[in-house]
Amino acid sequence: MQSLRLGFFTEIYRPVVNGVVASVETLAEGLRARGNHVYCFAPRIPGYDEKDDPVFRMPSLPLPTRTSYRLTLPLVSRRDRNGIIKRLSLIHAHSPFVTGWMGLRYARRYGIPLVYTYHPQLEAYAHYVPFEPKATRFAASTITRAYANQADVVVVPTAAMAARLRELGVIARIEIVPTGIDLVRFGSGRRDDALRERLGVARDDRLLLYVGRLAKEKSVELLVTALARVRETGLKLVVAGDGPARQELERRAREMRVLAFTRFLGVVDRARLPDLYASADAFLMPSTTETQGLVLAEALAAGAHVIASDTPQNRDVLGGAGVVVAPTAQAFAEAMLGVTQGGNPRADSAREAASRFSAERQTDRMQHLYESAIADLRIA
Hints:
By secondary structure, the chain is of the alpha/beta class. Helix content is 39%, strand content 17%.
């Protein structure tokens, strides 16, 4: 394989912790390990200094809403344009907004192929914009379609999302490349009774785990409501993550009288997640808005018993290795009652399903995809 010079343009990056950042980091690390040069262009975050890796920060402003995203100002120095961007083999955009259009502009100016990864379903985030929701969702779909059709290749993590983009009117080339995870790291997770005890889980209790951002689009309130319907059954809900909905979720748990059965951990270091997944009696995924859901693949790799909302993309990721239920509090309550204490008897099937999401496989497929996009542009 030839060594490539790749420019990643992303609207969000370190120190923020979310699925997009994890996806970009994992791919960049894998590509660099194969001898490629990866340069990230991302908004500057006040108070955060880059320690390593070639990351070029652009000025940014806070947005008038509770979000980790910032308004990127499309300002790149002449030196960086001529010394880095102009010499890129390919530009990979991870957003259809400011940084995405910057990437598109440079790709067209310098005759460089453009790859675009469809990360979040933008219309699912309409509640962050202070406008009429229906109009905002329509605008988000229009932005996605317009940008995707400018790309040489569009990458999606699941077949469900490929079908979704076709529904939106995307006619560009679409390739399905699942986002990769470190299978060895998450497969190393072990059930830890001492960890369960520190979380307030008694010997005969069943630990239900949620990992992810606490935000409206994640539907975590379904789990709190479901727990309220079965609170006397020895179930403990552990919530790992933080976000704008945390206070509301804690208030809801208090009002429903299940705060004593719920533990909010805040952000958990990724090094601690494998044992946390493996120590759970069930991992819960209430969200219906994911394009893939990295936490699903991580939980599978740890051999966890997974209960997820029934959506095409969640089915794609699980591959039959977990349980899908209707995205309602009642359906999750009934599934919670069926959780047994102890390890997942289908742990091997879960790990086998997770093998499709190896970071190495993603890197190999993306390298071939980049090379094919470069070759196609040369032919054209």
